[in-house]
Write a sequence for this structure.
């Protein structure tokens, strides 16, 4: 009976934990018919070895993903990816068990710990300092930093891991993070040289040029490159700034279509807010609007963006722009003496862009240093309070021991007078003689 009660308690705790994790406003709510389609696919016997119809899956994701099945659906889509791509990518990590990784120490511990409090700080699952959510997130990031020594830990990864953790268990979230990084190819943008991220910023700039020329010209006029506002979108999959319900839908599409989705979402968001962006006339207000106002999307705008993304196909352009970027870089290095002026212009533009990036990074570094100092001061205060509390506990323990001893002595003292008085009551009365 006791075991059954424990099982029941564990089941109730799991249910409460799941409710806590899925505490976000859903967009594109699922109709019963769509939920039934998903449940049928998920319950198919031997599903991990069966290739499902791509159009059917595309249609199902487009119509919505039920929140309570989302984690299982992501795992299902990952299985389908592996069946479609029979030959895994060349760079695969060593197959080290998750529990073995957790036993090791990581050199990235300090960086990970600092970012825990900044990752979804208002979400109930992550808000408690070193609570269940933060500890699970720390474990995943620590394990990944040990598995992938080249990337280690990079800012932004905590948000990606956090989204996965909200929809599945800790170990399953780690496996899905590995899948996104190595199979889908996200890890390229987190490499220390950040070259892939630079290419992505160039690709986004070219997409703006082709799809929204007036917006592109407006941003260029104020010398605003995508690196000033879009880098966090790519590094966190929009999770650091946008509503969770919207981010979950972005992840639905990434599991279905890959990293191309990030470009499509960024392009759709900028395009749909174009009239408002064009109203701003200086660098500070434009960047502030894109960073802080644009992410506060309404449900209608979110659904509109998701629907636009499903209709877009920019794969060929992205490939062309990547080749174009490399060609331009080679020209910058190998240009002939006849084009010195052009070369200087390009170098000046590149330097100007790099200076802006450096200033932005310097600003972020200063903010981060300020937070580190604040955290260190808080830790010192906590350690001091802990020391004082320990001292107070020791004093109380000593007082308790002294009081117990006094009570014992009083008990003994109260017992002895009664022993002395007892003979007086039993003395015989004197005789008349």
């Amino acid at each position: 009976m006791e075991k059954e009660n424990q099982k029941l308690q564990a089941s109730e705790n799991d249910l409460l934990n799941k409710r806590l994790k899925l505490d976000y406003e859903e967009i594109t709510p699922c109709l019963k018919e769509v939920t039934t389609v998903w449940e049928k696919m998920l319950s198919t016997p031997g599903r991990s070895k069966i290739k499902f119809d791509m159009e059917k899956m595309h249609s199902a994701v487009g119509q919505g993903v039920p929140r309570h099945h989302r984690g299982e659906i992501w795992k299902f889509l990952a299985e389908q990816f592996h069946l479609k791509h029979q030959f895994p990518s060349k760079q695969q990590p060593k197959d080290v068990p998750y529990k073995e990784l957790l036993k090791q120490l990581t050199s990235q511990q300090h960086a990970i710990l600092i970012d825990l409090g900044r990752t979804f700080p208002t979400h109930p699952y992550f808000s408690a300092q070193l609570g269940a959510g933060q500890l699970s997130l720390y474990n995943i990031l620590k394990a990944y930093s040990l598995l992938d020594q080249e990337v280690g830990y990079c800012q932004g990864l905590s948000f990606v891991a956090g989204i996965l953790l909200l929809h599945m268990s800790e170990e399953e979230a780690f496996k899905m993070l590995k899948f996104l990084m190595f199979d889908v190819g996200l890890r390229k943008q987190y490499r220390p040289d950040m070259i892939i991220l630079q290419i992505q910023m160039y690709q986004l700039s070219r997409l703006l040029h082709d799809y929204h020329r007036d917006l592109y010209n407006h941003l260029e006029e104020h010398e605003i490159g995508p690196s000033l506002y879009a880098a966090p979108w790519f590094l966190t999959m929009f999770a650091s700034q946008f509503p969770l319900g919207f981010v979950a839908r972005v992840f639905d599409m990434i599991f279905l279509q890959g990293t191309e989705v990030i470009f499509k979402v960024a392009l759709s968001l900028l395009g749909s807010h174009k009239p408002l962006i064009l109203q701003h006339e200086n660098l500070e207000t434009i960047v502030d609007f894109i960073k802080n106002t644009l992410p506060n999307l309404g449900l209608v705008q979110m659904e509109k963006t998701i629907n636009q993304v499903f209709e877009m196909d920019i794969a060929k352009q992205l490939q062309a722009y990547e080749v174009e970027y490399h060609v331009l870089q080679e020209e910058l290095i190998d240009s002939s003496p006849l084009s010195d002026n052009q070369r200087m212009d390009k170098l000046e533009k590149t330097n100007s862009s790099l200076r802006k990036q450096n200033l932005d990074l310097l600003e972020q570094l200063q903010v981060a240093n300020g937070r580190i100092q604040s955290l260190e001061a808080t830790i010192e205060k906590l350690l001091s309070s802990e020391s004082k509390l320990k001292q107070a506990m020791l004093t109380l323990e000593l007082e308790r021991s002294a009081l117990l001893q006094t009570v014992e002595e009083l008990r003994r003292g109260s017992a002895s007078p009664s022993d002395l008085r007892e003979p007086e009551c039993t003395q015989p009365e004197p005789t008349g003689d």
Summary: The chain has two domains: 1-188, 193-335. The two ends are 81 Å apart (CA to CA).
